[in-house]
Design goal:
24% of the residues lie in helices and 24% in strands. By secondary structure, it is an alpha/beta fold. It starts with 5 loop residues before the first strand and ends with a helix.
């Protein structure tokens, strides 16, 4: 990614309670659900690839360029996954945070997030800031201070921008088996 090192964190340590467990390895169009987001990240082209996983993760056939980052505190919420991931890429200049249960995310959108200089969130359907999102290293300490089941959008970034997705459908987030079946 040019003169700077950009990492992507793919968060995959959630408990998947609403899904009934093992959501990320559920079949979606012939591949495990998580691979769709991972492959989009790979196609986008980053310098480092980190997949944040829970202690009971059952990810198989993880591509060689991906580093598994264990989150021993996944039950405490999303903030712990962000902290684990950011701590593993402190040497990078920028980080893009994406979710492993968003299989339709577009590589071009991830590249656009990576290209920014300030915090950039994806504009959600309701106009709010959400994921995928990207942050420069100057905000890593703030991300490392997140607590509970909160994402980075819960923090205030005066210089943050919102990036419209190329297609609102790419923001589909799988929480339940019904969500997954509606994507087919």
């Amino acid at each position: 990614m040019a003169d700077r090192r950009v990492a992507v964190l793919l968060l995959g340590a959630g408990q998947a309670r609403r899904f009934g467990g093992d959501k990320l390895v559920a079949d979606f169009r012939g591949r495990p659900l998580w691979r769709w987001a991972a492959d989009a990240c790979t196609e986008a082209g980053f310098d480092e690839y980190c997949l944040v996983v829970g202690e009971d993760a059952r990810f198989a056939d993880v591509p060689a360029q991906w580093t598994l980052v264990p989150n021993r505190h996944a039950a405490s919420g999303m903030a712990s996954s962000i902290r684990c991931g950011v701590a593993s890429v402190r040497q990078c200049d920028r980080v893009v945070i994406a979710l492993a249960d968003m299989p339709l995310v577009a590589p071009a959108h991830l590249r656009a997030l990576a290209a920014g200089d300030d915090p950039v969130f994806t504009r959600q359907a309701d106009g709010s800031a959400g994921v995928p999102a990207a942050f420069p290293a100057r905000y890593f300490d703030r991300l490392l201070a997140l607590e509970g089941d909160r994402g980075a959008a819960s923090l205030s970034f005066a210089d943050a921008a919102l990036l419209d997705p190329p297609d609102a459908g790419m923001l589909a987030d799988v929480d339940t088996p019904v969500d997954l079946s509606q994507l087919d």
